Amino acid sequence: MRLVLAAALLSAGLTATAQQPAETQPAQAMSGQKTKAEKTSSAAKATAPDDQTSGITEEELRRMLVGKPLFLRGSYISDSLSYGAHGELDGNAPPAPFTLCAVQIDKVHLSKRKVELVGARYGLHFLGALAYEDPTKAVDRVKITQKKRTLKITIDRELVVKAKKVKTPKAKIGSHDEPAAGEAAAEPKTEAAANLPADQPADPNAATKTTSPAQSATALRGALDRIFAGTIDERMIAAMPDFWRLYYQSAAAKTDYRPSDPTVLRQNMVDQKAKLISKFEPASNEYAQDHGVAGMSLYHVVIGADGKPGEIAVARPIGFGLDENAVQAIRAAKFEPAMKDGKPVPVLLDLVVQFRIFSKRTAKTSSTPASDKQAEPSLPGPYSVQLPSSANQ
């Protein structure tokens, strides 16, 4: 009997021992799966993009700039321009009328320290619209960068550097520097944290470094906004000379120009009209000559009681930098003032200006004796040419 009972107990023990791994196996499998999931989650967090720390990419710059009709703020005529990290011009460049400073970017290259842009310059050719006739719909962009030449623009970047830890000296036991019980030890400072606090912008007057790609990207976007304009916006208009600013103010209001001085009379309100009494021939320029830009433009001019031109407003522009030449010629011209009741009075005069292009004919050279030569001009003579259909509207 004792032998049978012992055998039964031994059999029960073996059965219990054999069943134990089967009971613990699911728990171990669950533990393994959880560990694998935690590792996968940690890896995903490490590789997930963070908008707060992301920088700017070359592809993003291409989407922003390439093929877009842009304007250079500041209006510089040089074909090689360099800007600082915050959009300030590096060095000097000749100023130019904004109508010669439309640009198009064709290529973008982004490096650690610079953005390099390659493109071409365009001139604005207005097609005869008055200020209140929506000038944005009556203007052509004409490429003026010569063949085999390009417009090159470089922009510095805020340099992104890795933060370097600065060792904090250990406090001696019993010294005042030792943290009190319950106080957390001060976190070790980094070189970047000491020099460039994360919540403050970089110094706009110096080349700067940052540990934040996001801050560097923000600085670059701000520089691009200070360098380029997508349209003739309020900031561009505010920087223009008065005669252009008055034109765009009239265009925005969809009204004709009115002198700021309410006492200025119209020509039909006086006994004797104001008139031009000096030679008047505004100069063209090489861009207009090379691209066949010629025709008539119109300007509103206030002629004072002293016969001198005062306020001038563009009425019907021509573009290509010629309007600036017209205004310069108007300011140098002499006028006879208007008369009313025997007294000179200020009056508004509408002045039409004609621009011509010049032939490239020069005096011919030959072996014919001078006595047998026919008289020929030694300098090119002005003549009107048939412009493209878009320019004759």
Total of DSSP H or I helical runs spanning 4+ residues: 8
Q: Mean of residue pLDDT?
A: 77
Order of helices and strands: HHEEEEEEEHEHEHHEEHEEHEEEEEE
Count of folded domains: 2
Note the beta-strand portion. 15-25%
- Using only CA atoms, what is the Rg? 38 Å
Unreliable segments (pLDDT under 50, ≥5 consecutive)?
1-37, 39-53, 184-205, 361-393
Q: Helical content, roughly?
A: 25-40%
Main sheet? 7 strands, mixed
Q: Give the tally of β-strands.
A: 19
Structural class of the secondary structure composition? alpha+beta
> Distance N terminus to C terminus?
125 Å
Shape: elongated
Overview of this protein structure:
The protein has 393 residues and is an alpha+beta fold. The protein has helices at 2-47, 58-65, 191-195, 213-227, 234-238, 242-253, 286-290, 322-332, and strands at 70-72, 80-83, 102-110, 114-126, 139-143, 151-156, 159-160, 209-210, 228-229, 265-266, 275-276, 295-303, 309-316, 335-336, 338-340, 343-345, 347-355, 357-358, 382-383. Strands 1, 2, 3, 4, 5, 6 and 9 form a 7-stranded mixed sheet that branches. It has a 4-stranded mixed sheet with strand order 10-17-12-13. A two-stranded parallel sheet has the order 7-8. Strand 7, helix 3 (191-195) and strand 8 (209-210) form a beta-alpha-beta unit. The radius of gyration is 38 Å and the shape is elongated.
